[in-house]
């Protein structure tokens, strides 16, 4: 059947249909349509079935991409789904929001001369088709192991860990401080990239599998709060997947002015409105009719820009201190933002927020590019020239650092790195507290969904291995 493959010479790359900028900026629906079956099969057949598949090497999950592409091209869609799901807990989510241009597709060998196989879109199709066919079912354990694990945080790391442990027979309790499951999938990433029913569908499946969720349950050390120490007595092992939520500050005059807000507050409020909730402080965190200035050059900044446009902002300007070629965010997202009407102010570093009580603009220092650093990224230096960008809503999107977990949880022995992320051994997951494991952003720093899934899965395997080799307590020890 190999003749079905290697079609990249005959068939050109076709991306999923994208809604026009005019249409999509009126709502929060996803901007890309899924592939139809015939298109998915055709595009999968472009794969050249490499002996050393660099796509898989550069997929954090090591997905068996050429194999499920071939199965898709052969219309063996149930097998394709089974193979895809074997290495990825949430393939339909990765297919939508992985930065494929930096991972699998960016390393597809037919890029040299031809355009890459549309791996992400096929991955999304395979799982969406499996849901439609009823093939995606909760994997119930064959027997209960009589061991319980507490998972803190219901982002992709926590959910992937919970799913993998539950299918092996662990009793799994997920503790989440928010009122919904999903972490940044629910309250960070806007629904024009990932619609919320995609996340809710997984939440329901996990419940059907027997994972027990404790929502609106922050783990902490405040009055009435469940503590990490409580969890360590309640469960045989604990996994921490709490993510990173401390917004990076910008130390310039005027930071305290009204109308200067953090990206996570703005995006959370917007996502809550998507659930028809009033997030409170609606005026402060809504861009309708405002002249919005977003500060930052990463994907969070692009999400704020594009959310503002959909909320009906009068104008949206993104201010970034480097240039287009040296920004950390995905090129595609910048392109999408420009299509939707955003303006970019490159090589501009804010040095004051202007205004008396409410912000009226940002004074920026104009920068120029210097020599590349060790990573090849160009340094920047000030030119001494200034400019003023006018606006009445300023959104700081400068990235995230970890919260002070040892301090907030009164756990001084929980070791952290100099960046405040939880310390685990290289390629390991157990923290300095025995039986307490961690993964995802709280270990890596702000990263990607696919890496969080990888960590959650691998940490679950590490917990299971620790039980098997006797380094974690069994049920008897807990009851003693
Ligand atoms: P999170 O998703 O942050 O989940 C952590 C969970 O822990 C949260 O639900 C939180 O409420 C809970 N929690 C924290 N502390 C406690 C506590 N004390 N008690 C109980 N619960 C607690 N990645 C991509 O791959 N593609 C993208 O397009 C993309 N877009 C992004 C857009 C934005 C705006 C942001 C902010 C990030 C984006 N990312 C994207 C990054 C991605 O969302 C994260 O890397 C990923 O969600 C990390 O997963 P996690 O499970 O480690 O943490
Ligand atoms: Fe590509 Fe992400 Fe899917 Fe891996 S998980 S194949 S990197 S889209
Ligand atoms: Fe197919 Fe590209 Fe992967 Fe090669 S690198 S196996 S052509 S998807």
UniProtKB/TrEMBL annotation:
- Name assigned to this protein: NAD(P)-dependent oxidoreductase
Q: Which organism is it from?
A: Neokomagataea tanensis
Q: Which SUPFAM superfamilies match?
A: alpha-helical ferredoxin, Nucleotide-binding domain
A Gene Ontology molecular function term of the record: 4 iron, 4 sulfur cluster binding
Keywords of the record: 4Fe-4S, Iron, Iron-sulfur, Metal-binding, Oxidoreductase
The source's superkingdom equals Bacteria
Residues of the Dihydroprymidine dehydrogenase domain: 24-134
Q: Name the Pfam families on file.
A: Fer4_20 (PF14691), Pyr_redox_2 (PF07992)
Could you tell me which residue ranges the FAD/NAD(P)-binding domain spans? 149-456
Has the keyword Translocase been applied to this entry? Answer: no
